[in-house]
Amino acid sequence: MPSQSKNGHLDLFLRFLLGLSLESNQILLQDLLTQMRRCSYKKEKTVEYIKEKMNENLSPEKSINLIHCLNELGDDSLLQEIQRYVRCPSCMLRCGQKLSNMRKKFESLYEVTSNKRNTTLLNEIYTELYITESESGEISNEHEKEEYFRKRISDEWLARRIISHLKSSRSLYIMCHIPVFCWISVTVLERMLSETERRRIPKTLTQMYTHFLIIQTNIKHQKDYEKKDEDMIFKLGKLAFEQLVKGNLIFYDEDLRECGIDVAEASVYSGLCTQIFREEKGLYQGKVYCFVHLSIQEHLAALYAYISITNNNINVFDEFSKVLGGIKHKSSEWDSLSELHHRAVDESLQSKNGHLDLFLRFLLGLSLESNQILLQDLLTQMRRCSYKKEKTVKYIKEKMNENLSPEKSINLIHCLNELGDDSLLQEIQRYVRSESIGNYKFSFSQWAALVFVLLMSEQHLDELDLNKFIGAENPADEVLVRLQPVIKETKKLRLMRCDITDEGFAALTSALRSNPSHLRDLDLSNNYNLKDSGVKLISDVLKNPDCKLKILKLSLCDITDEGCVALTSALRSNPSHLTHLNLSQNKLTDSGVKLISDVLKNPDCKLKILKLCKCDITDKGCVALTSALRSNPSHLTHLNLSFNNLRDSGVKLISDVLKNPDCKLEILKLRCCDITDEGCVALTSALRSNPSHLRDLNLSYNKLTDSGKKLISDLKDDPHYKLETVETHKQR
């Protein structure tokens, strides 16, 4: 086996060698080599050996070559097993199937071979509903999104117009993390903004996808457009709906035939769906089919459901009540569009994996008169109906008061947006602008609307001050539980002087664990209930290698050296991101400082600001701290040890650190540390030997005499030194 080859120069050789061993190929070879002896070969032993090798956690390239080898041997047992999972991905997700290394590698292979231009993983098959920028996405931040449009569109003015339009609708712009949506947006907006005729530019998801479908069918430009193409759209919609309800991402010939689609024309459809529907080759089987993206399938499925009720008075859910395994209604009840909407809302809320959420948004959006007019360009035979949205809006708001999950509630707000109803959001925005929002008692629907408003606001995602929402009617724990979706997307979080219990801290850290790479600044100062138990929860977040937290403020939180054990353990395992740590006014004592010192010794530690004011530290704790700073002196720029019993002996240790030419300390605060003139002599001596960095020194509330204060003031007045601020007032 050529698994040891680094450049893969034996990979194809192996495939040929194995293939030549089969009897069918031996017969072929006899026509070429008449003297060749045929041998009786049983492939099972080799197949077993290859599968064993694949479980050794090989590189993807090696694993894929071994699957090709199994192909040469005519063994597809592994592929058949995996295709059963791929055939129904939602079942795979629900069952929580844990695949072996070998299966995972084929899963990746199958995705690459059947969908070469789309890197969507099979365990992420359903469209995300409200995604803000994250470091794990396909297009993960503002600059990469805008760069895509600028590279895709040669006209710089047009690119700016498109970016500006998408930014004006936050619900559209946050979808731009999906590359396919960027492509759809460019396809639609590039044409519409370039046209001389004034047309209504899409502002909702339904409008964008409907325009895209119209453009792709080339109705206005194809002279041979016929009714059969309208029939094909309906058949594609039926296929999309049936497979969506079943949870299928990939379809086969029999699926197309069941929907009346001619398999021989599946990849062409008279030029109708070259961009909407794609035909691929499986590894062993014949043709398999999938839509370019699941969101396109969801839009077509909604279109089918809408046409079925308006043209044929048929509720598509009645045909699939067994598949859905949920709600059953008498068909006579569903003779109106609004009643279909109620059914669709119920089915979406019952779905555990959210596979009907985007479908629901499209279905509701297609019902508006403006979108019906659009659809008549696409489907000339479609009947328009008189639809009043108020009944559906009321039903959705009632459902939102049933204490749904944040994901379900947010999707329903998106649904209200598609219906053009913003009454709930307007109400919440008035509360957000109020200074006394914490004094209003919110219903479940209002909490959901608040989450939505905050998620749509770049300002609140940049910095979220939770104190604003806490008050007499909204205790801190409830705020933390309700606003978890916002917390996990914010970059800077403030939560100070709040009566938080373990329930609140658990909700907070749960949100942070779900998206550890986003938060950069966390301030929990003056929360006396945090204690060691809360610090342990936070430490679990810090351990995560994806955690990028830079600033952590935990002053006055009743933390002891026990909490310090958990915190420093986390920082040792992930030391390279935190730059600011404030543990002031806690009960760390010398033992806690020794633990922190072990972190500072690590050359990967990037801590620049360390505040340990009033932590019961003595000169013994100073020994460990200064030892660490001598071994790694180049990062710390701000050190606050005020209100600790350091005395002159502790200051002398700190002075030894200041002498080091690699020391970059700029701010040193030693207020009320029982320092006398003796300590001042050591300090000024150190600064004379390394005068280039320290610019702020605070020695207030110590025991300095006038001579000690003069030693410091002389340094400040000397232009050779960088000292800008010196505080020596109020000596005891």
Q: How is this structure best described in words?
A:
The chain has 34 helices and 12 strands. It is mostly helical. The chain has 4 domains: 2-124, no CATH class; 126-203, no CATH class; 227-387, no CATH class; 490-727, Ribonuclease Inhibitor (Leucine-rich repeat, LRR (right-handed beta-alpha superhelix)). It has a 10-stranded parallel beta sheet. It is globular. Mean pLDDT is 81; it is low at 85-140 and 328-335.
Keywords:
two-stranded antiparallel sheet; 4 domains; 732 residues; mainly alpha
State the shape.
globular
What is the distance, rounded to the nearest whole angstrom, between the alpha carbons of the first and last residues? 81 Å
**CATH superfamily assignment of the largest domain?**
Ribonuclease Inhibitor
Examine the coordinates and then state which fold CATH places here, giving the name of the CATH topology of the largest domain.
Leucine-rich repeat, LRR (right-handed beta-alpha superhelix)
SS elements, strand count: 12
- Low-confidence stretches are 85-140, 328-335
Identify the CATH class of the largest domain: Alpha Beta
Mean pLDDT: 81
Helix residue percentage: 40-55%
Instruction: Enumerate how many helices there are, as a single number.
Output: 34
Biggest β-sheet strands, sense, barrel: 10 strands, parallel
Based on helices, strands and strand pairing, what is the structural class? mainly alpha
- How large a portion of the residues is in β-strands, by DSSP E? 5-15%
Name the CATH architecture of the largest domain: Alpha-Beta Horseshoe
Strand order of the largest sheet: 3-4-5-6-7-8-9-10-11-12
Using the CA coordinates, give the radius of gyration.
33 Å
The total number of structural domains is: 4
